[in-house]
């Protein structure tokens, strides 16, 4: 056991090293070559004994551990019990602390209350003492003998000044016969004013300067000098009055800027406010047009007067001072200005349109929206077919430049009033509302309605002697668009240029113009179809088969056919009408389309006949006349088409031996052989073997 304890005390404990040390300490446990021979039995016996010792040691240690655990558990219970007792003691102490805190608060409240009571008693006492002293000093002034040290001691001049200031304030509160004294002073001041004695006026003003009646005196002064003013044109007179007062006030009063500011305040709050109310209230509910005109005029003249008054010295922040005066007069009228403006503009615009349609004895048709109408519109745009019966407009475009000018003039005035009367933060939004009204009545109710009516009035392409008035609609619509765009740029853009409403207005303008351009394009396209239809009717009625295959080849006296003459006359008339109805690139675009369709019509028309030699010459003359007509278009492509057609017609008369040479010429070399062949086949002598052989 002794060895075991020693062996266990070595740190750190390693089992292999523990056994090694045990073997070396056991007799007979060494190696076979040592001084003692190796004795396994003895070593085994030592191991068995040592194991028994370890078991005994283990049991002893285990009992000790159990004893310590029991002791630890006992101490833990005692410690927990002690902690609980401490917690209870802490709770009791905390409760006592709260009670003490409440008691302290109660005592403090009592102390504060007592202090307030003491102060309430002491303050009147101090005031009474102070009042007594002031009464004493006041008596000395009344007696004319200053005996107190504070007045006789030069070192207490500050205290004396403070006392005199207080006595001065008290003196102002003393009762006296104000009316009598005030009337006397006013009479004196009036007399001095009539005599022009500025110095005496200044003396009287100085006497009243430190008394409350000074306010009434200043008011009287305004009445005195303003009696001859503010009678005719109140705004002009107010400016003159302020200029006159500005010259005198510095000579009469010691605080001229205050007196002048008081004068201006009186003018605004008394004279101007009553004048504005009188001018606006009588027409506010009965006549919106006159109300808006008066409001704009009065506000403009008031702000102009304010600008003139800025040149006078009115104190530090005269801009704010004048702005507040203007706001006090007009705020009740400006709050709902835009509602009155938009309401009037809608009713006025509707009346202008209705008066126009009544003058035409026309009842507006319902264009309709959504559903079937949208489907018809999409079909019409894609197929260019007239949907529904054609309406005879009797040449009326239902567009009036006078109406447009009136609508734009009303809107222009609305924009001007909006610019002047709207708060800067509300200006873009208010301007946009006015713009939407213009779009509604000018663009939709007038222009778009006229376009729809014009489209409905376009006859079908196979109608005979159709009157085409849609180009008149196009002409007037273009003029109106220019006026609309000018007002947008001149009057709306400056009001919204620096706000998010700019993009909204531009987008709305773009949408409405694109919508109208689409209808214009549709109408122009259908009108061109009608023109071509009219030409077809002329050709069908006037062109005879014998024109190009006369019975007597030697007795042809005409230079070109009657059909050609009438078609060219009709085309020239339509070209002139297109040029008068449009401007810029639009003219070239429409004439290009008409020219191409005109060429196709003549090309297909010539394909219907057979040509003798003399008939071919006549066809060449007709095409030459058509080419002269095409020159009026002033479109190079159209002229080129008719040049080529004229060259093709030469194939009708050229000698058979020269066919190949003509076909390889400059104008025909690039054409498809089938086209050349189709013209050669129109010759009356085509079937002869000789001609077919030469062409092949």
Spell out the helices and strands N to C: HHHHHHHHHHHHHHHHHHHHHHHHH
Number of domains: 4
Biggest sheet descriptor: none
Alpha-beta content class: mainly alpha
Outline the low-pLDDT stretches. none
Helix content: over 70%
First-residue to last-residue Cα separation: 140 Å
Radius of gyration: 58 Å
Number of strands: 0
Strand content: under 5%
Apparent shape: flat
The total count of helices amounts to 25
User: On the 0-100 scale, what is the average pLDDT?
Assistant: 83
Please explain how this structure is put together.
With 696 residues, this protein is mostly helical. The chain has four domains: 38-141; 176-339, no CATH class; 363-369 and 391-532, no CATH class; 547-692, Methane Monooxygenase Hydroxylase, Chain G, domain 1 (Up-down Bundle), CATH 1.20.58. It has helices spanning 2-9, 15-25, 40-143, 149-152, 157-173, 178-195, 198-208, 213-226, 234-252, 256-281, 288-309, 318-334, 337-359, 371-383, 401-421, 427-456, 470-496, 501-542, 562-581, 585-606, 613-631, 636-649, 659-663, 673-680, 689-695. It is flat and about 150 Å long. The model has no long low-confidence stretch (mean pLDDT 83).
List keywords for this structure.
696 residues; mainly alpha; 25 helices; flat; exocytosis; Sec10_N; coiled coil; Exocyst complex component 5
Q: Which helices and strands occur, and which strands form pairs?
A:
Layout: H1 2-9, H2 15-25, H3 40-143, H4 149-152, H5 157-173, H6 178-195, H7 198-208, H8 213-226, H9 234-252, H10 256-281, H11 288-309, H12 318-334, H13 337-359, H14 371-383, H15 401-421, H16 427-456, H17 470-496, H18 501-542, H19 562-581, H20 585-606, H21 613-631, H22 636-649, H23 659-663, H24 673-680, H25 689-695
């Amino acid at each position: 056991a002794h060895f075991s304890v020693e062996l266990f005390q070595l740190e750190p404990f390693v089992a292999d090293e523990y056994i090694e040390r045990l073997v070396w300490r056991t007799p007979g446990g060494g190696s076979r070559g040592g001084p003692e021979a190796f004795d396994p039995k003895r070593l085994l016996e030592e191991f068995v004994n040592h194991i028994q010792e370890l078991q005994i040691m283990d049991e002893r240690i285990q009992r000790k551990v159990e004893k310590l655990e029991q002791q630890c558990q006992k101490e833990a219970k005692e410690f927990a019990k002690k902690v609980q007792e401490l917690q209870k003691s802490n709770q009791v102490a905390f409760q006592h602390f709260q009670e003490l805190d409440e008691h302290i608060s109660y005592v403090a409240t009592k102390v504060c209350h007592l202090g307030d009571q003491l102060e309430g008693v002491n303050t009147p006492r101090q005031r009474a003492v102070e009042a007594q002293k002031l009464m004493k000093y006041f008596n000395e002034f009344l007696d004319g003998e200053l005996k107190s040290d504070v007045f006789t001691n030069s070192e207490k001049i500050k205290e004396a000044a403070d006392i005199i200031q207080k006595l001065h304030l008290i003196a102002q509160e003393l009762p006296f016969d104000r009316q009598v004294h005030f009337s006397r002073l006013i009479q004196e001041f009036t007399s001095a004013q009539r005599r022009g004695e500025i110095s005496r006026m200044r003396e009287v003003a100085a006497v009243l300067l430190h008394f409350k009646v000074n306010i009434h005196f200043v008011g009287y002064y305004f009445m005195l000098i303003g009696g001859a003013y503010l009678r005719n044109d109140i705004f002009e007179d107010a400016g003159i009055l302020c200029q006159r007062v500005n010259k005198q006030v510095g000579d009469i009063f010691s605080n001229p800027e205050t007196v002048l500011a008081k004068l201006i305040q009186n003018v605004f709050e008394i004279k101007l406010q009553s004048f504005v109310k009188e001018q606006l209230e009588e027409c506010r509910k009965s006549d919106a047009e006159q109300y808006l005109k008066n409001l704009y005029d009065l506000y403009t003249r008031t702000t102009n007067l304010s600008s003139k008054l800025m040149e006078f010295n009115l104190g530090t922040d005269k801009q704010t001072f004048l702005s507040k005066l203007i706001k006090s007069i007009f705020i009740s009228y400006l709050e709902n200005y835009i509602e009155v403006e938009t309401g009037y503009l809608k009713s006025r615009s509707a009346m202008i349109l209705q008066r126009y349609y009544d003058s035409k004895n026309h009842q507006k048709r319902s264009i309709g929206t959504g559903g079937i109408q949208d489907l018809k519109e999409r079909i019409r745009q894609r197929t260019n077919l007239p949907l529904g019966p054609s309406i005879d407009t009797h040449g009326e475009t239902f567009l009036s430049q006078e109406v447009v000018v009136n609508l734009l003039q009303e809107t222009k005035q609305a924009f001007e009033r909006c610019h002047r009367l709207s708060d800067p933060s509300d200006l873009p939004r208010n301007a946009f509302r006015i713009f939407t009204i213009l779009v509604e009545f000018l663009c939709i109710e007038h222009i778009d309605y006229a376009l729809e009516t014009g489209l409905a009035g376009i006859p079908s392409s196979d109608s005979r002697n159709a009157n085409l008035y849609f180009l008149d609609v196009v002409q007037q619509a273009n003029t109106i668009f220019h006026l609309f765009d000018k007002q947008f740029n001149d009057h709306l853009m400056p009001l919204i240029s620096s706000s998010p409403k700019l993009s909204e207005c531009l987008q709305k303008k773009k949408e409405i113009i694109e919508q109208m351009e689409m209808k214009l394009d549709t109408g122009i396209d259908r009108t061109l179809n009608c023109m071509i239809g009219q030409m077809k009717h002329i050709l069908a009625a006037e062109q005879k088969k014998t024109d190009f295959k006369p019975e007597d080849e030697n007795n042809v006296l005409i230079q070109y056919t009657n059909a050609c003459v009438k078609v060219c006359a009709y085309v020239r008339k339509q070209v002139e009408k297109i040029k008068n109805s449009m401007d810029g690139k639009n003219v070239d675009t429409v004439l290009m389309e008409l020219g191409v369709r005109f060429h196709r019509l003549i090309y297909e028309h010539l394909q219907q006949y057979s040509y003798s030699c003399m008939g071919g010459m006549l066809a060449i003359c007709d095409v030459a006349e058509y080419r002269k007509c095409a020159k009026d278009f002033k479109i190079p492509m159209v002229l080129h088409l008719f040049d080529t057609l004229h060259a093709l017609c030469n194939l009708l008369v050229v000698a058979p031996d020269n066919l190949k040479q003509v076909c390889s010429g400059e104008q025909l070399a690039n054409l498809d052989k089938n086209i050349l062949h189709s013209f050669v086949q129109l010759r009356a002598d085509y079937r002869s073997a000789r001609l077919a052989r030469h062409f092949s």
